[in-house]
Design goal:
single chain, 97 residues, alpha+beta, two-stranded antiparallel sheet, 56% helix, 12% strand
Length: 97
């Protein structure tokens, strides 16, 4: 009887591991991070003034892994790829609204 219970527990654990592993895949979005960010800005449901600001008032820059580690305070963070969008100095009209 103990062997049957142990076998059933092992089968249940295998099924649980298989189910969890299947959910980890997630969707992969093709393209470089700046291109993905541009597509997000293009498809955002915003008014015309905000859409204009997203197109002309933001600058997107790459964030090096060492900056991410320092910003997040994680010394053992693996190298990661990231970008940031910030308002340009020329267009501050959106900030004053």
């Amino acid at each position: 009887m103990k062997k049957l219970v142990a076998f059933l527990c092992a089968v249940v654990m295998l099924l649980l591991f298989a189910a969890c592993a299947a959910g980890e895949g997630g969707k992969e979005i093709p393209g470089a991070l700046p291109e993905i960010l541009d597509r997000l800005y293009d498809t955002a449901e915003v008014d015309d003034a905000t859409r204009d600001f997203l197109k002309t008032g933001l600058v997107t820059m790459d964030m090096p892994p060492e900056v991410l580690r320092d910003t997040l305070g994680l010394a053992d963070m693996p190298d990661a790829e990231a970008v940031a969008s910030e308002p340009t100095a020329e267009d501050d009209s959106f900030l004053s609204a």
